[in-house]
Write a sequence for this structure.
């Protein structure tokens, strides 16, 4: 039995048909930590599903069993709301002749997961052609969505490849309309979206009946995008177990439909081989994901312009300043400047939403509060770097 409740422990509960863990040995503190970790990693419903299927759920204390069950039913109910929003959007876009590709969580939940309550979703992601993007945003607004305020006016055009919209009901899940994948042109790891549109295909007839016109990326393209999204856009240290499970499900569900030659070729062309290797290796380590030996061998011999970034992202940044500096490394000059302005001088609408105050008279005080927080974090960063160097010298 694992000595602590960590990601490896959670992965063990997800992968074994009948986990070789005596759950009766877990005490109250262990269960609290397990529930906290499962929520953070987004796998609570999956643990409930797997333990139910193995017959072990009955051996869990009633309170913990109820908590696990709630994670599944809460996810199921939330996903039904998302599917209802998707149905309305798909119908409107289809009627207007606007192509829409389901991305990430909503696509996975509709296709590779066996039940609608297993894949928690933080937002609803759709890819829209750039030339129809403005029209799609207007249609979403007519349906009650509002754009989230930018940190700095014009920043979206510099950094973002999507527009985030949300209904006035704050319990609703955000809608993210994308016109590119994996960042705007300001990010060094970003690539043109044209190839991805060439890889879009219709979803199954059953799904099309409910969501007319909705498309998805081919399984091979989904796997490539999922890996790059996890390792480049967010960074391996921030990648939850849920995303590795997505990768595992993609490979196991589609099997021979994954074209490994195309996957390797595109990864090399996009300079995403390092990201692909990191994502597949981690998924295999945690979940036993079946990666062809030839693929793993080829990826282990490759390097690309993004390898340093991928390796850095596998380590947790000690401070927020170091995290932002790491992000700046992946940006061009205009992107760096835009990010800096957004951190130091965000526009008032963003400040109101970020700090939850309403009186305009408090705005100057909250700017000072923000700058003071940045200064303190910068000071901690400098001290951390200095002490780290002193420690290195003393050990040498």
């Amino acid at each position: 039995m694992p000595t602590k409740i960590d990601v490896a422990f959670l992965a063990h509960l997800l992968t074994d048909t009948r986990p070789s863990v005596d759950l009766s040995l877990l005490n109250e503190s262990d269960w609290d930590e397990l529930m906290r970790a499962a929520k953070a990693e987004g796998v609570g419903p999956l643990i409930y599903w797997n333990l139910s299927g193995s017959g072990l759920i009955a051996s869990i204390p009633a309170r913990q069993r109820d908590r696990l069950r709630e994670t599944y039913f809460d996810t199921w109910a939330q996903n039904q709301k998302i599917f209802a929003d998707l149905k309305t959007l798909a119908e409107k876009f289809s009627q207007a002749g606007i192509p829409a590709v389901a991305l990430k969580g909503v696509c996975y939940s509709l296709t590779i997961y066996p039940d609608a309550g297993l894949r928690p979703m933080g937002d609803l992601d759709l890819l829209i052609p750039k030339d129809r993007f403005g029209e799609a945003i207007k249609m979403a607004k007519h349906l009650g969505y509002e754009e989230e305020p930018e940190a700095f006016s014009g920043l979206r055009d510099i950094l973002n490849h999507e527009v985030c919209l949300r209904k006035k009901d704050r319990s609703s899940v955000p809608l993210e309309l994308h016109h590119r994948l994996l960042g705007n042109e300001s990010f060094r790891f970003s690539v043109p979206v044209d190839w991805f549109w060439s890889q879009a295909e219709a979803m199954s007839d059953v799904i099309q009946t409910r969501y007319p016109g909705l498309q998805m990326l081919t399984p091979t393209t989904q796997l490539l995008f999922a890996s790059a999204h996890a390792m480049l856009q967010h960074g391996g240290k921030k990648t939850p177990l849920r995303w590795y499970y997505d990768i595992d499900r993609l490979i196991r569900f589609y099997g021979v439909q994954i074209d490994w030659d195309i996957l390797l070729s595109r990864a090399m062309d996009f300079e995403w081989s390092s990201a692909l290797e990191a994502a597949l290796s981690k998924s295999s380590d945690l979940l036993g994901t079946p990666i062809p030996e030839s693929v793993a061998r080829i990826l282990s011999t490759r390097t690309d312009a993004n390898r340093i970034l991928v390796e850095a992202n596998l380590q947790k940044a000690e401070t927020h300043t170091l995290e932002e500096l790491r992000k700046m490394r992946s940006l061009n000059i205009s992107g760096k400047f835009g990010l800096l302005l957004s951190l130091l001088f965000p526009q008032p609408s963003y400040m109101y939403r970020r700090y939850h105050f309403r009186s305009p008279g408090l705005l100057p005080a909250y700017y000072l509060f923000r700058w003071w927080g940045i200064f303190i974090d910068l000071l901690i960063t400098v001290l951390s770097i200095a002490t780290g160097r002193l420690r290195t010298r003393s050990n040498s």
About this structure: The mean pLDDT is 87. The beta strands are 100-102, 124-127, 145-147, 162-167, 175-178, 200-202, 214-217.
